[in-house]
Amino acid sequence: DDLIAQKRWMGQEYSRQLRDIPGLELPVEEPWCRHMYWMYGVVLSEDRDMDAVAFARELHKLEVDTRPFFLGMHEQPVFQKRGLFVNGSYPVAERLAKQGLYLPSGLALTEDQIAEVCRAVRKVLS
Q1: Buried b / exposed e across 35-48, counting CB within 10 Å, b at 16+?
Q2: Measured distance CA(29)–CA(68) in Å, rounded
Q3: pTM of the prediction?
Q4: How far apart are CA 121 and CA 18, in angstroms?
Q5: What's 40's DSSP letter?
Q6: Are 55 and 101 spatial neighbours (Cβ–Cβ below 8 Å)?
Q7: Are 20 and 118 in contact (CB under 8 A)?
Q8: Is it the case that residue 89 has pLDDT exceeding 90?
Q9: Are 103 and 14 in contact (CB under 8 A)?
Q10: Shortest CA distance to 41 belongs to which of 97, 112, 122?
Q11: Minimal CA–CA distance to 101: which of 22, 36, 26?
């Protein structure tokens, strides 16, 4: 329970500090479902001048490490080698993999470190 509470606090703090940035999609929490924020993923709108790789590169220059979103199952090499998902079209999964990344979300993150990450995100996207 304590770990989940810590993760939820971190996710809510990220959302509070990043919610007004145009073109940045944040995790959604619905009244019927509580987000655990295992990782804090953001997605850049396609009308931005960069994809997640470029976004990660710019954040890294500001000493913020990120992780890419997982590839869709149809793009996983193991499934491609087996001939699965041939000629399939999965535009949502492809967009998320191209435009999404995870911000730092380790349990040891402090409030000041989250604020530092958010400042870097704002700087890169301004």
Answers
A1: eebebbbbbbeeee
A2: 21
A3: 0.91
A4: 8
A5: E
A6: yes
A7: no
A8: no
A9: yes
A10: 97
A11: 26
